[in-house]
Input
Amino acid sequence: MLHHTGLAVNAMFEACAFFLSNPPNLKVRGTFVTDLFVKLATELTGRQLRIEFTPNMPPTPLVYGLEGGKAWPVRDGARPLVVEDVSISLSTRDNAEVMHVRTAGWAVDATARLIWRSATPGKKQVDLSFVPLRDPLAPQPKSGKVVAPHGLVGQSFDGDSIAVDGKKDHYRELWWRQTSYKTKEIVTEAQAEGAIEGHGDEYKVADFFGTKFKYSRFDALEAAPRDVSALSGAKRTVRANAWKTSKAGTSGDDAAHAAEAAA
Output
């Protein structure tokens, strides 16, 4: 989702179904982020930590890489776990668990909340928020080289003032095309095509905490931002992207299930 120097935020997508309210009980088979795996290296000494956030399989989050070699649980409301220039904490906001990870360069929030009208009662999804704490396109403090962020979300921190809209599913259109309105079950298809470089399979990593893929950044010495002109999605001009006010993520991606519906 976000890969940058010394930081890899990997998401697990899981097939989950939910029901629309309009038309009543139209079943939508889609995918949601349900688990998060973060690998990071402190900027001070390069010490590596791994964080596992699996809200459907508590206890979570668990931190690996500390003294003793055991997994360290982070408790809701407890003091943040601080390791050099990294802090990890857990809080509750609007009845949802929120994991907070702060590094020298990024603030990462992961919010676990119930999937709206889920076919699996109690199933949670993870919404993500990424906020840079310094200019992500500035030369790296140690190398003096620019490493632009990447990942499905991270590539949007490209420093321009152009937003790109990728392919999106429209449920009524899918319902007609897939079933001619004859059955009450559809399958989502869109994977943000047009708004990301390459295609989804190029973003897969070998394991939960993997850092190697086509657009790797964790160990990269230098990397330019994506070329937005090469993307096929609909482009629109937005306010100049000053890094101090920039953020990106997946929060609210499904908030329009009810509004989108198939009316």
